[in-house]
Write a structure and sequence with these properties.
The chain is an alpha+beta fold and 230 residues long. It folds into 2 domains: 1-35; 37-229, no CATH class. It contains 6 helices and 10 strands; from the N terminus they run αααββββαβββααβββ. The strands form 2 sheets. Strands 3, 5, 6, 7, 8, 9 and 10 form a 7-stranded mixed β-sheet that branches. Helix 3 packs parallel to helix 4 (106-128) and helix 4 runs antiparallel to helix 6 (187-202).
């Protein structure tokens, strides 16, 4: 009898999933795995799946990005280059100003918008009671191998899927540096750790100074296939 109950439950769940997918059963948007990602909506356990779907669906990614305050401009494709870029955007800023604009794939731009809205600014308000006015970065696109090696796998930077974040400037003008403040045991170090942990909710890979010496002065964030939070 127990086995029959199990199969009946499984069949009912499968039917419910098909009904939601077909649009025959109405569920709240935030609990519909096939509904477009709303960047400003509170993240839940489906958010990671929705972010993953964007990597193979440019139209869905563009729709998600339109729900953010991020200012972007489309860039010309370069399909014949050593490191081809297709559908790349130039991110010019959003809730937070940037030390300079940066190139980003659409999935990277969406992940950055999620990070900015749900992790970076809330962390600043929680720790300092004020917003981050500017994010300082070391760049995104770079046509190179991992760690600049002569051979080996291409870096996620080679496809504009990665960004290196070096620090932040608060609304009152105070600067927080990954290089200088991460090793400390104070308010700034706690803020940086909150930012690192929050970034792991939006990006696939987040590498901080805890990972290795090559990341002592920045957070590497990317939207690659692997999942690492260090």
């Amino acid at each position: 009898m127990g086995r029959w109950i199990f199969w009946l439950i499984l069949l009912a769940l499968g039917g419910a999933v098909v009904n939601v997918w077909r649009g025959w059963l109405d569920v709240p948007v935030q609990w519909n795995p096939w509904a477009p990602l709303d960047i400003k909506a509170t993240p839940n356990w489906l958010t990671g799946y929705k972010l993953m779907r964007l990597r193979s669906d440019p139209a869905l990614c563009a729709l998600a990005l339109s729900s953010s305050d991020l200012r972007v401009s489309p860039q010309s494709d370069s399909p014949g280059a050593k490191c081809p870029l297709i559908g790349t955007l130039r991110v010019q800023g959003g809730e937070t100003a940037l030390s300079s604009s940066f190139l980003a794939s659409c999935p990277l731009a969406v992940a950055y918008a999620m990070f900015e809205h749900h992790s970076l600014q809330p962390a600043a308000q929680a720790v300092y009671g004020q917003k981050v006015a500017r994010l300082d970065h070391l760049g995104s696109f770079a046509c190179r191998n991992v760690y600049n090696r002569e051979s080996g796998a291409l870096s996620r930077h080679a496809s504009a899927d990665a960004l290196d974040i070096a620090g932040f400037r608060l609304a009152d003008g105070r600067s927080i540096s990954v290089l200088k403040d991460w090793p400390k045991d104070n308010q700034d170090a706690r803020f940086l750790r909150q930012v690192r942990d929050g970034a792991c909710e939006a990006f696939s890979v987040v590498l901080s100074p805890d990972y290795n010496a090559a990341h002592r002065n920045h957070f590497h964030v990317d939207v690659g296939r692997w999942s690492v939070c260090r």
